[in-house]
Design a protein that fits this description.
The protein is an all-alpha fold. The protein has two helices and no strands.
């Protein structure tokens, strides 16, 4: 029947709306998790940026200290070496002096290489974290779009349910009216039958 079909359609819409609400809730929970991940990733980026700046500062300080040592050695080195060579210093003392200077320069070079490697590692980590952050924000934007679409679909479904309820109310009202009309027709027929029976009875007398 029409009314049965309308009720089935409304029940299907109710079930559909329920599924949409479940999906909307799942998306909302997922977005909350994404937001927490983004906040944690932002903190990691801030920490690694601070680490990067610290490493840059330490590298600069190491480089400046090395330049000062080299400058000092060149400015005072010639005189010092001549004095050592023409002094009573032994060959061992002279070689020790040269070896110490070489070791100092090697230490400076080694430290600068360490800072270069550290900066390369930190920069690579920063780039990776930034990419992960971009991916998370992209994913969050996609979920926001899905949530907006889901919200629109829920509104449409709710509107369809309201329309279906109105159709059901209208169909029930028409059914009631039709039932009244049918009953009134039956009553009229019964009255006509009774009137005809009386007329026949009276004519027989």
């Amino acid at each position: 029947s029409l009314l049965g079909g309308l009720n089935d359609s409304k029940n299907n819409l109710d079930e559909y709306l329920g599924d949409l609400k479940d999906s909307y809730s799942a998306i909302s929970l997922y977005m909350e998790d994404l937001q927490l991940e983004i906040e944690e990733k932002q903190k990691q980026i801030e920490d690694i940026n601070a680490e990067l700046e610290k490493a840059k500062t330490e590298k600069t300080e190491q480089y400046e200290a090395m330049k000062l040592r080299i400058k000092y050695m060149y400015e005072s080195g010639d005189t010092s070496y001549i004095e050592v060579l023409f002094s009573d210093a032994s060959l061992s003392e002279i070689l020790n002096r040269v070896e110490y200077t070489a070791e100092l320069l090697e230490y400076d070079r080694s430290k600068l290489e360490e800072y270069e490697q550290l900066l390369t590692y930190i920069e690579a980590s920063r780039i990776e974290l930034t990419k992960e952050m971009e991916d998370l924000n992209t994913l969050l934007s996609e979920q926001k779009e899905r949530q907006a679409e889901m919200s629109s679909m829920m509104s449409d479904a709710a509107e369809n349910i309201r329309n279906k309820e109105n159709e059901i109310d209208e169909a029930e009202s028409k059914a009631e009216q039709l039932a009244l009309e049918i009953q009134a027709g039956k009553d009229t027929i019964e009255e006509l039958k009774e009137e005809e029976s009386r007329r026949i009875a009276e004519s027989i007398r």
